[in-house]
């Protein structure tokens, strides 16, 4: 089963980028270039870790990059960057200052999200109105919905959610440097400026756990 997973991952790489004649380079979690064999061994290892890591491939000017990234990441914004983030979000929607900020980010259409921008109607869906309102009330937070520009998706047909285009790619550059499948989100503590970043597909339970975790750190 593990060998099959690696085969599928590499097949997707070559299917998506096979027509572009560029070398494929492999990197570990620390950004160190490794051999293909070592990369495959790493995938074997992380398959035992559940959903802790993502296999990721992206393209730069000279090559294709295959790497492994942690799904949950911790960081802290410096005061200037935190101020810029607040100013950016205030232009989108002026709200009372809250203790926490959640940004749910749509990376554009991919095989995982298929361009979907609406929630599925389930009561505890991470994009459900009732769920978000309860989360706001229980944890003193504000939620924002930011998307990467994608002409193939009509974000105006998203129901109650107001998706905002990531102008100047500010949010993407700050938090979501590559295309992570389905979508990602970040929770920011506005008092300590600490944040927890979750990359790739997620659900309401993951959002709740991250908010509860960062609340305990505050």
CATH class of the largest domain: Alpha Beta
Main sheet properties: 6 strands, mixed
Count the domains: 2
Q: Determine the mean pLDDT.
A: 82
Number of strands: 10
Give, in spatial order, the strands making up the sheet with the most strands. 5-10-9-6-7-8
The radius of gyration over CA amounts to 18 Å
Helix content: 25-40%
Structural class by helix and strand composition: alpha/beta
> The CATH topology of the largest domain, please?
Glutaredoxin
What does this structure look like?
By secondary structure, the protein is an alpha/beta fold. It has 2 domains: 69 residues, no CATH class; 146 residues, Glutaredoxin. Helices cover 33% and strands 24% of the residues. The chain has a 6-stranded mixed beta sheet with strand order 5-10-9-6-7-8, with helices on one face. A 4-stranded mixed beta sheet has the order 2-1-4-3, with helices on one face. The longest helix has 16 residues.
Strand and helix map with partners:
Layout: H1 2-17, E1 24-27, E2 33-34, H2 36-46, E3 53-59, E4 64-70, E5 72-76, H3 79-92, E6 100-106, H4 129-139, E7 141-147, E8 164-165, H5 170-174, E9 184-189, E10 194-198, H6 204-217
Parallel strand pairs: 1-4, 6-7, 7-8
Antiparallel strand pairs: 1-2, 3-4, 5-10, 6-9, 9-10
Quick recap:
Helices cover 33% and strands 24% of the residues. It has 218 residues and is an alpha/beta fold.
Which features would summarize this protein structure in a list?
disordered N terminus; 10 strands; Glutaredoxin; single chain; 218 residues; alpha/beta; 33% helix
């Amino acid at each position: 089963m593990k060998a099959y997973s690696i085969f599928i991952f590499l097949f997707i790489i070559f299917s998506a980028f096979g027509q572009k004649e560029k070398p494929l380079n492999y990197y570990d979690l620390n950004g160190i270039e490794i051999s293909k064999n070592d990369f495959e061994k790493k995938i074997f290892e992380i398959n035992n870790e559940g959903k802790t890591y993502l296999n990721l491939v992206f393209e730069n000017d000279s090559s294709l990059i295959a790497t492994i990234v942690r799904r949950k990441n911790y960081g802290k914004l410096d005061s200037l960057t935190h101020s810029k983030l607040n100013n950016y979000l205030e232009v989108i929607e002026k709200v009372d200052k809250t203790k926490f900020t959640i940004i749910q980010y749509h990376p554009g259409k991919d095989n995982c999200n298929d361009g979907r921008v609406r929630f599925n109607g389930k009561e505890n869906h991470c994009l459900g109105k009732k769920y978000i309102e309860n989360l706001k009330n229980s944890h003193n937070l504000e939620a924002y919905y930011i998307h990467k520009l994608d002409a193939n998706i009509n974000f105006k047909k998203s129901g109650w959610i107001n998706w905002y285009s990531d102008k100047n790619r500010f949010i993407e550059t700050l938090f979501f440097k590559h295309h992570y499948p389905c979508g990602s989100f970040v929770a920011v503590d506005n008092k300590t400026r600490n944040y927890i970043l979750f990359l790739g597909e997620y659900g309401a339970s993951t959002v709740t756990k991250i908010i509860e975790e960062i609340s305990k750190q505050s």
